Amino acid sequence: MGGWAIAVHGGAGVDPNLPRERQEEAKKLLTRCLQIGISALRSNLPAIDVVELVVRELETDPLFNSGRGSALTENGTVEMEASIMDGPKRRCGAVSGLTAVKNPVSLARLVMEKSPHSYLAFSGAEEFARQQGVELVDNDYFITEENVGMLKLAKEANSILFDYRIPAAGLESCSVGAAANSPLVMNGLPISVYAPETVGCVAVDSEGRCAAATSTGGLMNKKTGRIGDSPLIGSGTYAGDLCGISCTGEGEAIIRGTLARDVAAVMEYKGLGLQEAVDFVVKERLDEGRAGLIAVSRDGEVACGFNTNGMFRGFATEDGFMEVGIWE
């Protein structure tokens, strides 16, 4: 055992013109979340408790795209999704289509622990939340003035916006016809901006138990009912005996590549180390997609990989290593 370790992310794909103030806000939030996780791991909390605790913090802060501050659907509402996985027995829970659950990651854990199922969605998930006494809020709680403005721009561009917090200098590109001039596509259709901000956390505790959790509001101007990679076990989230992984980026590409499970698979079947496995998967399994991921191993290692302009990320290990970054 190499001791505990933790990694956190706030999305892969960052606008190169992102204002310095926004960068510093992101780093402060990631640092705060790392400190929460470090304190929990030092208190010998199991990894599954740690990842839930950290992702709840990310869902509560509107800076990234999960919980409060989630992206808006084409109808101006919020539909959130999340998943969590406990490595030792590969237990998992996932939820989609949430409109009133304050902390989706905690409902995902309840699905894992208090239901006979692994995945609940839409009205069924919210009925289960009521049965479990989960804190519920009005959909308006999740919606920010900034989100409403970015949805308007997305509709004018007739496109999906991945990052709805685009710097003012970049708003000119979000005009009618912008999507048609974009070299980026999703499932063959043009998109105008690539900078998702899903959140996630992976951790391994001092007993070598790995866990992972991921939460998102999805895409700005997405069709109602769209489900991305974040709640899909093996795609956006995975944890087993060897490692824990949380992904972020172009959901459709992550789904096609079953990205999170593939990291564990090449470790198991090819004998690759953690960083080696992450690099292989990012290079070989994304086709033309854009994404990133964070990972921990049962030996207390941390790793990340991305093929985007940057990724909001932070790491800490028991031996004192700590790093928070955005760019390559």
Automatic annotation (TrEMBL):
Enzyme class: hydrolase
Species, as recorded: Populus deltoides (Eastern poplar)
Quaternary structure and partners: Heterotetramer of two alpha and two beta chains arranged as a dimer of alpha/beta heterodimers.
Superkingdom: Eukaryota
Active site residues of this protein: T198
Any single GO BP term: proteolysis
Reactions accelerated catalytically: Cleavage of a beta-linked Asp residue from the N-terminus of a polypeptide
Protein name: beta-aspartyl-peptidase
Site (Cleavage): E197, T198
Binding site for substrate: R226, I227, G228, D229, T248, G249, E250, G251
Keywords tagged on the record: Autocatalytic cleavage, Hydrolase, Protease
GO MF annotations, alphabetized: asparaginase activity; beta-aspartyl-peptidase activity
EC code: 3.4.19.5
